[in-house]
Specification:
The complex is a heterodimer of chains A (405) and B (476). Helix content of chain A is 32%, strand content 23%. In chain A, strand 16 and strand 17 form a beta hairpin. In chain A, 59% of the residues are buried. Chain A is globular. With 405 residues, chain A is of the alpha+beta class. The longest helix of chain B is centred in the last third of the chain and has 20 residues. Chain B is an alpha+beta fold and 476 residues long. In chain B, helix 10 crosses helix 12, helix 10 runs antiparallel to helix 15 and helix 13 crosses helix 14. Chain B has a 7-stranded antiparallel sheet, with helices on both faces. In chain B, strand 8 and strand 9 form a beta hairpin. Classes of the chains: A alpha+beta (405), B alpha+beta (476). At the A-B interface, strand 8, helix 7, strand 10, helix 8 and helix 9 of A face strand 9, helix 9, helix 10, helix 12 and helix 18 of B.
Chain lengths: 405, 476
């Protein structure tokens, strides 16, 4: 096995052109912290963006940052924090769940469309992804999008790159919209609700005018003995304290809540420091990280479909789970033996109108089962044609998403 | 720049017209096929009225299945298709060609499902943008993207062009508010992309379709996000002695961590045109005006406004006028959203749509004025300042072909300026035919070739809206 670490887009282009000429597939990688995501594949050679680094543009007043793909996410976040800004979509850190080390790269964030709890308010990674440079499977450098918020010039290849896991192009530079850091945050917690009732509370909160930026439900036994329903507020100090009260009032019907605030003796609110800590745990799925030998599924459905889904899957798979994204994003842990629940989970997700991704399982399982949700034939046909339009020789991460594609 | 070219019509298709119309009648009820010349003329152009072509025929299917049947038939016959929503495109996206059949989704105008718990609405493609908000307003919800034509334009057209609007500074454009579509491919195959969940597996085909200008398929249904409206909203007018001062104020507001829900810019000519039309109380003694809207509770709006007013004062604001009532708010937005129509009362115009980095706004405004003056024409500027999406309106006389050429030349020079300043050709109106031949200024051959190969993955025979987006001479 050989790892190519080109220092420029041009060097990367020649590596890919050479691989295409020899029809020798490449694994595409940043720092490799999410290597375990997707189907298990093995290639002779690896192409890494680790040496293509550096922030190329940061205009705080224009809310934009651009960086070469191998730039560590931590460096971007540090730079933004200096100007009291951040990425809007709260990218999760997969290292706790996947047991990996190293520094995740901004290119890896883009290629996996990594989005955290704030997706419900601020959009996914792809929503903030304004522009990209990449090398396609023909060894050609291509740019798409740009550095401005509004841009409908030509086909949106930028967003197509988000979540393509490097199968369409090797990202060399990415440009993101950024947002101001809020002055503060707080989290309203309601204790003791069932999944169904908790998700109803989240729907009510998200349907309120108070701009909830995180909405998760943690069943009993995850972190604490009691179930917790969490709603996060962010913004200027005065607005957050007003909204926390107003939201608690609006959700009064959801029963027993505990409290710090004397005005509303049935609710409790976490302050900024505790709120940040708790949402980091939600974001990174640390509640389910151990034991490390279970399978982890990421299931995405409409929020109201989620309780029935977990009621069905839970007992059959002896699973543990929690809900983010207002209830619609289910993180589920179950035994990794057999197909790790693939047949059941995919069918449950499909019939609920959503999809499921196996994010953690032993290599042998990820080589044998559908890791991504199986698609109808007409979509598969389009997917194959798109793949061929970027990578006719099939050298970029073949098989990472579906066998033979 | 010479007059925008259309591909030469396929004589064989023109000769088969009667048979093709008969074939369409075979798959659609009689009242869904339009073939009389005077009736077809109603579809010969869109809001880019300087260009027009009478189509071979027009069909108005009522269901996804009817769209599918039409597409399968036209695909088998090798006939080009021009998808059409309400025909409000400013870039010529819905202008037909003589050998194409217009597939218009206007009859598919039902709101199919409103789901407040999941905060989504499922609608047919012909539903107007505003009708979505109207269907959910009783629960305090709205659909966020708000193009100025929202009373007339269809969600299908919005998806085709990835439309924006005044409030997308905070809420994003169509692609950020779209969760799923039902799409009929060129050969009639029906596919569902996305749905009510917040993401979808595999390649982001939804992102490709949104803004593809009808070249990948015909959208017949959409699932969109609906949002709960803020407790209150209030626009405030800020008058400045120069465009530079207004532009600098915008940058400072964003730089201090404030993202108002809208920041709209008008220069003196635009203020006068809009005020004469809407009587919104715009200040007439300033060189530039910002409409800045804040949202939230009374206290939150007050707090945010205090911060904005302090910044505006540092940038020499001369007039501050707060809306005091719902009626004043409505008038302020009526003036802004009528800008194009009001300008049309004064002169013919072409509306540019380039976006530039907001730091470049003062420079680009100055150069725009110089470019237009050098062609002996006038310009009015009205645009979305917070995201740098400019709309210079170049005024000319449509009955004077020489003047039209000059206006188009000035427009092309302005768009090149936008690209050189780090921006793009179009922020929300789409490429259409209007900016098609300028694509080479923004993209390299490799960039465009990759886009066209993706396009061909959906439509190998180039039958869907074929004259649009990609330069005619760039196609392989």
């Amino acid at each position: 096995m050989m790892t190519h670490t080109p220092r420029s887009e041009a060097e990367a282009a020649s590596v890919i052109a050479d691989a295409a000429a020899r029809r020798a597939p490449l694994s595409i990688m940043g720092a490799g912290t999410k290597r375990g995501l997707g189907r298990f594949t093995q290639t002779q050679d690896v192409l890494s963006s680790a040496a293509i680094t550096g922030i190329t543009l940061h205009e705080p007043a224009e809310l934009v940052i651009a960086a070469r793909a191998g730039t560590p996410l931590a460096e971007i976040e540090r730079k933004l924090a200096e100007d009291r800004q951040r990425l809007p979509f709260e990218p999760m850190d997969y290292r706790p769940l996947l047991g990996t080390t190293g520094e995740p790269t901004i290119g890896g964030v883009a290629a996996t469309n990594l989005s955290g709890p704030r997706r419900i308010k601020a959009g996914a990674c792809r929503d903030s992804f304004l522009g990209a440079r990449f090398v396609n499977g023909r060894g050609e450098a291509v740019k798409s999008g740009g550095r401005v918020m509004k841009n409908v010039t030509g086909l949106d290849l930028t967003r197509l790159m988000a979540g393509a896991f490097g199968t369409l192009g090797f990202l060399t530079e990415v440009t993101f919209k950024v947002v101001p850091l809020p002055e503060t945050e707080a989290t309203l917690i309601i204790d003791g609700l069932s999944d169904r009732r908790g998700i109803e509370a989240l729907s009510a909160g998200l349907g309120s005018p108070f701009e909830v930026t995180g909405a998760a439900h943690l069943p009993a036994g995850l972190g604490e003995a009691k179930a917790r329903t969490l709603l996060r507020l962010e913004g200027f100090e005065s607005a957050v304290s007003y909204r926390a009260k107003a939201l608690a009032e609006a959700l009064r019907d959801f029963g027993k809540a505990q409290v710090l605030d004397a005005q509303l003796p049935d609710t409790y609110v976490l302050d900024a420091r505790e709120s940040e800590k708790l949402w980091r745990e939600v974001r990174d799925v640390t509640f389910l990280a151990s034991p490390g030998d279970t399978a982890i599924w990421r299931i995405s459905v409409a929020p109201t479909k989620a309780p029935a889904l977990t009621e069905t899957l839970g007992p059959k798979l002896s699973a543990r789970w929690f809900h983010d994204w207002g209830g619609g994003l289910v993180w589920l842990s179950c035994g990794a033996q057999g197909d790790a629940g693939a047949a059941l989970v995919h069918e449950a997700a499909r019939s609920a109108g959503g999809h499921a991704l196996l994010v953690r399982a032993p290599d042998a399982v990820r080589a044998a089962v559908d890791v991504f949700q199986p698609q109808p034939e007409a979509i598969t046909k389009l997917t194959r044609a798109i793949k061929a339009s970027f990578d006719p020789s099939g050298v970029l991460e073949p098989g990472r998403i579906h066998a033979g594609a | 720049m010479s007059e925008i070219a259309f591909p030469a019509p396929d004589r064989d298709i023109l000769a088969r017209r009667d048979a093709i119309v008969a074939g369409l009648r075979g798959v659609l009820p009689a009242n869904c096929v339009i073939e009389k010349l005077d009736e077809r003329r109603a579809f010969e152009t869109d809001a880019l009225t300087a260009y027009r072509r009478v189509p071979l025929a027009v069909v108005l299917p009522r269901t996804t299945e009817e769209v599918s049947a039409v597409m399968a038939y036209l695909h088998a016959q090798g006939v080009p298709v021009t998808p059409r929503g309400a025909g409000t495109s400013l870039s010529g996206g819905a202008i037909p060609q003589e050998d194409s059949v217009v597939v218009c989704v206007a009859k598919m105008n039902r709101v199919l499902e409103v789901d407040f718990a999941n905060r989504v609405a499922r609608v047919e493609a012909g539903v107007t943008n505003l009708a979505i908000s109207n269907a959910v307003v009783h629960e305090g919800f709205f659909y966020a993207p708000d193009p100025s034509s929202q009373l007339a334009c269809s969600i299908g057209g919005n998806i085709g062009m990835n439309s924006g609007g005044a409030h997308c500074l905070k809420y994003g454009v169509t692609t950020n508010n779209l969760l799923g579509v039902r799409l009929v491919l060129g050969d009639g195959t029906i596919v569902d992309l996305g749905g009510a969940a917040l993401d979808a597996p595999d390649y982001d085909l939804l992102a490709l379709v949104c803004g593809a200008e009808g070249q990948l398929g015909i959208v017949t249904e959409a699932t969109v996000r609906i949002l709960r409206a803020a407790e209150g909203a209030r626009p405030v007018l800020f008058g400045f002695p120069s465009s530079e001062a207004a532009g600098a104020a915008v940058a400072a507001i964003v730089g201090e961590g404030i993202i108002p829900v809208a920041m709209e810019f008008m220069d003196a000519p635009a203020i006068k045109i809009c005020e004469d039309f809407a009587h919104a109380g715009y200040p007439l003694d300033v060189e530039a005006m910002l409409i800045i809207e804040v949202e939230g509770s009374e206290a939150e709006m007050e707090a945010e406004l205090d911060k904005i007013i302090a910044i505006a004062k540092r940038h020499g604001v001369t007039v501050i006028k707060e809306s005091k009532s719902a009626m004043e708010t409505a008038l302020i937005w009526k003036g802004r959203k009528s800008a194009f129509g009001a300008t049309g009362r004064v002169a013919d115009y072409i509306c540019m749509d380039g976006t530039v980095p907001t730091g470049q706004l003062p420079y680009v405004l100055r150069r725009t004025a110089e470019i237009v003056a050098s062609h002996g024409l006038r310009v009015a500027n009205v645009f979305h300042a917070g995201d740098g999406n400019m709309h210079p309106l170049i005024l000319y006389n449509v009955n004077d072909p020489a003047e039209q050429r000059k206006a188009e030349e000035a427009g092309a020079d302005i768009l090149k300026l936008c690209v050189e300043a780090g921006g793009c050709l179009t922020g929300e109106h789409g490429v259409g035919i209007e900016k098609r031949d300028l694509m080479g200024f923004q993209f390299s051959k490799a960039d465009l070739d990759q886009q066209m190969r993706v396009r061909q993955a959906f439509d190998p025979a180039w039958l869907l809206n074929p004259a649009k987006v990609f330069p005619l001479d760039a196609r392989g």
